[in-house]
Specification:
By secondary structure, this protein is α+β, with helices and mostly antiparallel strands. The chain is about 30% helix and about 25% strand. A hairpin with a 2-residue loop joins strand 4 and strand 5.
Amino acid sequence: MQYLNRVFAVLVLIALVSLPVLAASDGVKQVNSKNICFINKTRFNHNLKSVEVDGKKYYGCCPDCLAKLKDDASSRMDVDPLSGKQVDKATAVIGVDKNGKIYFFENIENLKKFKVPAAVPTGL
């Protein structure tokens, strides 16, 4: 009986420690813009090259991405998934979900409130 009580206590402790992790798993974490290609929305483990436009820095993974950021104003914008507002990628708060998807937010509050949508099953 004492053994079962210990096992139960350990299981309860594991559950309590895991709750914050499970609750946070549907959110995003903030990442450094220097590691994000603003064109293909990919995160890298190193700092990327940047191009400056109107005093703002935009990051790209290759010369083509940097050229697009410089020449195409629409490539420098994205939509905050929480508010639906247009945001400038250079000034946005950038988040990544557990699957590596990149999101651009207008402020840190929106990043913290955002919950990643559930995946839609394929092949239905």
